[in-house]
Amino acid sequence: MPTAEPARSQVRPDRRQGEPAISSAAAGEQATAERRWAWPVLGAVLLAALGLRLWGIGEGLPYVYNIDEAGHFVPKAVQMFEPGHGLNPGYFVNPPALTYVLHVVLAVWFGGGHGVLREYDLHPDNVFLLSRVVAAVLGSGAVWLLYLFAARLFDRRIALLAAAIEAVAFLPVFYGHLALNDAVTLLPLTLSLLGSAGILRYGRRHDYAIAGLGLGFACASKYTAGIAILPLAAAAASRYLEEPAAAGRDTPALAGRRTLTGLAIAGGCALAAFLLANPYALLDFARFRSELVHQSSLSEEAQGKLGAPKQGGVLYYLWALTWGLGWIPALAALGGAIAVWWRAAGGGQRVGWLLVGAPILFLAFMGLQDRYFGRWLLPIFPILCVLAAFFAIFMVRAASSHTRVPAVIPGVALTVLLLAQGTIFSTHGDLVLARADTRNLTRAWMIAHIPPGSRIVLEPVVLGEWLASSPGSSTRLWQKYPTLESVIAPDGTLAPQDIHKVALEDYETTLSPALIGSYEQQGYCWVITGSTESGRALVDPRAAPVAAAYYRALAATAQVVYHVSPYSAGSSSPAFNFDWSFDYYPLSYRAPGPEMTVYRLTGRRCRQGA
């Protein structure tokens, strides 16, 4: 059995037919020269990535308005410090890798479990801020791994451009601000891609190990990151098909044994990494299985959210790519998916299988679900960035070989086009996040103008802590109407004999114009609304006609005493959308948060100062 790598495995898969081979010495000199300029540029890209993710990272604090951030990873990491709780998250709707990372970081930063619990009780904003910084750093680390992945697969120019695209793309930047698993997952996922590129290039055992470890940690961070298994499989298949041809003494059986050994290593590492980051998937298997099924059922819930888009998942995700990644990068990625097959065929390699299959299958699978959000596309962003960069460099090289135009001119032009949209909208998004949230402004106005203890009707655009007199306090500034209790009969009239709790997503089903008079009778004279709730009904009034009538009646009969808009003066408010209403992508935003309105009811009891 030969111990040396097959000669063919040392040939770069992207070298074009007819390109002259270069000597080892010349190749070494060329690599040294490339590193001299590539590393400073990479450093600038990484600093830009981190800066964009840290700018505005304190948005909303001391209050956390993203319901997923408030309920999933940070609170679970803190709960593990409570006496008698242990390390079992008791929650697997989202995998717990990020929870464990935060658990360790919080313990180190705040001096142990007692310090964490005390800080979370007195200053929870500090705990969330540190957790967001961790997410920003991990998201920026994914940009570095993307550079390594693309450099291994192609060259440093493509790698730098791919890293720059992900560094500024809107969706990775925005979700890099939050203590959620969306952007964080890109780190282990890209590590798996790096290993897969190593398998394709060299087929070494440690490449299989890297690919498997990245896959396991990625799945323990976000279940849909399992898409990384496709590039791994494609790379392994490529090694099996090409190794016998690379060295005459090899046989298909020998190549098959090496490939199977490599896949066994990758599979073992993936399983070990997954269980290391999610041990109770095995130790509490019944709950793990139950909540995994529950998570799957949520994504398949047929239009369960009022205000959700109706055009279908595939079309929605294609639209989301035009702003989450950018028009030019998305089109360039499509061009790269086509060009890489032509280039790969010419070079006799299987790069196309590694890069193209996963995004197509991911879009098809996610597009068939009944719920869809732009951030769910993030697991395929690293591959799309590489395809876009590959196409850009491919076009530059083609232009320089057929014209007398220096390559630097089209290179700079294409780089600007690829990065412009992401840079503009991510920078604008950071400017927005750095300003005061409209809900914070509304609360400050209410403290100054609504007497303590007053009865208010507050829509679920904030969490309970918003009403507390201070962090951790059980004292409430005002008495809040139970907005998540339904008292509405099918005909829209009050039905107090049939009061029952409703889910947050069904809040609009509790609304009716008849409620306004009921508020006054019970002494609730202040009504606070937010466009992220009212917008769900008003964007499709036929789906919630009674709720839409409620908002119209409230505007017609109550007095507006305070109103704050997140939009610039003279800008029209965009229609409600589950992405843009929460990630502030449109340039019309000047501040984060929904449009907030405080109404004073004008009935006799409220006029008398009740």
Number of helices: 25
Strand order of the largest sheet: 2-1-5-7-6
Helix content: 55-70%
Contiguous low-pLDDT stretches (5 residues minimum) are 1-21
Shape summary: globular
Q: What does the radius of gyration come to?
A: 27 Å
Measured by DSSP, the beta-strand proportion falls in under 5%
Distance between the termini: 91 Å
Q: How many strands, what sense, and barrel or not for the largest sheet?
A: 5 strands, mixed
How many strands appear in the DSSP assignment?
A: 7
Mean pLDDT: 87
Structural class determined from secondary elements = mainly alpha
Short description:
The chain has helices spanning 24-54, 67-71, 73-79, 97-110, 113-122, 124-153, 156-168, 170-175, 181-184, 186-201, 205-219, 229-246, 252-277, 280-283, 285-299, 313-347, 351-367, 381-402, 408-433, 438-449, 514-521, 531-538, 545-557, 580-583, 604-607; strands spanning 455-458, 479-480, 485-486, 500-501, 526-530, 559-564, 596-600. With 610 residues, the protein is mainly α.
Describe this protein's structure.
This protein has helices spanning 24-54, 67-71, 73-79, 97-110, 113-122, 124-153, 156-168, 170-175, 181-184, 186-201, 205-219, 229-246, 252-277, 280-283, 285-299, 313-347, 351-367, 381-402, 408-433, 438-449, 514-521, 531-538, 545-557, 580-583, 604-607, and strands at 455-458, 479-480, 485-486, 500-501, 526-530, 559-564, 596-600. α4 crosses α5 (113-122). The strands form two sheets. A five-stranded mixed sheet has the order 2-1-5-7-6, sandwiched between helices. The protein has a two-stranded antiparallel sheet with strand order 3-4. The protein contains 25 helices and seven strands.
